Amino acid sequence: MRIDVLTLFPPAFDGGPLDVSIIKRARDADLLDLQVHDIREHATDKHRSVDDYPFGGGQGMVMRVDVLDAALQHVRARAAEPGLVVYLSPQGEVLTDAIVRELATEPRLILVCGRYEGVDERFVEHCVDREISIGDYILTGGELPAMVLIDAVARHIPGALGDEVSPEDESFADGLLEHPQYTRPAEYRGWQVPDVLLSGHHANIEKWKKAQRVERTRARRPDLLP
Ligand code: 9WO
Question: Is 35 a member of any domain?
Answer without folding.
Answer: yes
